[in-house]
């Protein structure tokens, strides 16, 4: 499923320190795996991070750019 304006990054898990992606109805599309999520979508992709290692995922949670990239690489389309 591609990301759209109807999808939302939200914090969750036990202590709220991880982020996942849900649709507008609150159905989780990508589990709570990320310590940071960009606040902008890039087409059907979004930048995510785990402990300062950045990457890009698609709407199914598949890596388009694996974790470890510099954040600057994630911010450019």
Walkthrough of the structure:
The chain is mainly beta. The protein has one domain. Helix content is 6%, strand content 58%. β2 (18-23) and β3 form a beta hairpin. The longest helix is centred in the C-terminal third of the chain and has 5 residues, at 71-75.
Write the layout of secondary structure elements.
Elements: E1 7-12, E2 18-23, E3 28-34, E4 36-42, E5 45-50, E6 53-58, E7 63-69, H1 71-75
Antiparallel strand pairs: 1-2, 2-3, 4-5, 5-6, 6-7
Q: Tags for this entry?
A:
3-stranded antiparallel β-sheet, globular, 77 residues
In short:
The protein is mostly beta strands.
Distance between the termini: 19 Å
How do the helices and strands follow one another from N- to C-terminus?
A: EEEEEEEH
Number of distinct helices: 1
Radius of gyration from the alpha-carbon trace, in angstroms: 11 Å
Portion in helices: under 10%
Mean pLDDT: 78
What is the number of independent domains? Answer: 1
Low-confidence region ranges? 1-5
What proportion strand?
over 45%
Structural class: mainly beta
Q: Count the beta strands.
A: 7
Largest sheet: 4 strands, antiparallel
Shape: globular
